[in-house]
Amino acid sequence: TTTTTTTTTTTATAAISECPLALRECATRLEDAMGTDPGRRGIRPLAVARRGDLLLAALSLRKARRVGIITGFYIVPSSAPETDGPLGALAIARAVIANGGEAVILTDSQCAFFTRTFIRLLNLHDLIQVQELDSPLEVDKLGSWLRSADADVGSSAQQGGFDALVSIERVGPAGDGLCYNMRGEDISAYTPCGLAELWRVVDQQRLASSCSSSCSSSLPSSSSSRPSLFDV
What we know:
- It is a single chain.
- α7 (136-148) packs parallel to α9.
- By secondary structure, the chain is an alpha/beta fold.
- The strands form 2 sheets. A 5-stranded parallel sheet has the order 5-4-1-6-7, with helices on one face.
- It has helices spanning 2-17, 21-34, 44-49, 53-63, 84-98, 109-121, 136-148, 153-158, 194-208, 211-216; strands at residues 66-72, 74-75, 80-81, 102-107, 128-132, 164-170, 228-231.
- The chain starts with a helix and ends with a strand.
- 50% of the residues lie in helices and 14% in strands.
């Protein structure tokens, strides 16, 4: 563990030092803004603890050929999903596409309609795919794509796998396996478990990978078969 951590830190430092100064300063300003916590939700300690991750995530996405973006948070009283998650997902997708990559938005059937509506309004329906993952069976299929990806990133994309996964405004299970909103209400009945299972598939890959693959899971790489992971 010590060897892995040391290698990861050294590689991260090297990756950041090679970035243009303007890009590093931009990432720092954005992280400062995110840490102001105007809603008083107690996120500042998290922002401080993970300082520097934004730049590493951007560098990794910059190299990714195919990115899966997970989103969708259903609001039970409103009988509709949140809108900030899908819009944020589309912003990331547009950046990936502008950089020559391919973006696929992964959501559930409760949230897919709104996501597709935003895509049509932005005239991006020919560029961004939306895939619904409601059941563990559907995730198992996607997981097999991830597992089938060999050492070449380009081959990974051709087989349907992803070089990076980004989760933005997506509820996940707590320690008891249930999903809750910020009020502590159980919304598991409205949140299919499929997308949460996807993270378990990827975690299993990371545990089974070698030290070098584990290090590359959070750093820019053009040769790792393991997708990079980002939770926003």
